[in-house]
Amino acid sequence: MHAFNGYNSCLFAYGQTGSGKTYTMMGGDPNSVGGADGGVIPRLCVELFDRRVRIEAEGHSKWRVMVGYVEVYNERVSDLLAKRRKGSKEEVFVEVREHPTMGVFIEGQRLQEVSSMGEIVELIESGNRARHTASTKMNDRSSRSHAIFMLTLYEERSMQTASGQVITTAGMSSRMNLVDLAGSERVTQSEVVGQQFNEARYINLSLTTLGRVIDMLADM
Question: Which residues form the Kinesin motor domain (predicted)?
Fold first, then answer.
């Protein structure tokens, strides 16, 4: 897992609505991701914690794991891990900013440190319950937003001085962005109207923009 070597990574699930993107990323039931049919995200998290245990057993460093989860709905970003009233889907909007040296970050986002797979499962399921979904002709549980699950790793290195004092310093850091994109759809086939029509318009526009960005990066 290159994240423990300081490399950032990003994985997109892209495709037409109903093609299985959320199933691939989350598993059979997005509200219960800890089971045997878990998708890419829970399986990756299991491997991450297994790898962390093996690395820390070598005694050279410790690793902190931070989790963030946001969605992009109608071109606005909201925090899926923000504190809400029980059962509420109220949106808690955050802002995407760019720092001159740190790069792009999300202002106001809740980042939660986790130490076990159980804690991650709880956060994923809580975030999934807050996502925007709707039933259309092509998909009875269509994601109406792009969801971005973020894992950030921070290394802490310990060194003992000649006097026996233990000094802890910051080491490498890395981030994994795991993205469940909303599905592209033809409104003539999905037969959406009203609010769902506006959602489809924003989804298709953002996917087109993403495609252009990737094309430009490939040409650099």
Answer: 1-220
Residues 179-218, buried b or exposed e (16+ Cβ, 10 A)? bbbbbbbeeeebebeeebeebbebbbebbeeeeeeeeeee
Please tell me whether 109 is known to bind a ligand. Answer: no
- Give the dihedral of Cα atoms 46, 51, 54, 59; nearest 10 deg: -120
Q: Is 169 annotated as a binding residue?
A: no
Residue range 130-157, pLDDT digits in tens: 888 755 555 556 678 899 999 999 999 8
Kind of pairing, strands 61-73 and 76-79? antiparallel
Which string of b and e fits 16-55 if b means at least 16 CB within 10 Å?
A: ebbeebbbebbbeebeebbeeebbbbbebbeebbeebeeb
Confirm or reject CATH 3.30.230.10 for domain 2-219, answering yes or no: no
Is residue 64 within a helix (H) or strand (E), and if so which, with residue range? strand 61-73
Q: Was 21 annotated as part of a binding site?
A: yes
16 is an annotated ligand-binding site residue: yes
Q: Find out whether 24 is annotated in a ligand binding site.
A: no
- By CB atoms closer than 10 A (0-12, 13-18, 19+), residue 138 is middle
Instruction: For residue range 9-55, list pLDDT tens digits in order.
Output: 999 999 888 889 989 999 887 667 777 788 999 999 999 999 999 99
3-state secondary structure of 10: strand
pTM above 0.70, yes or no: yes
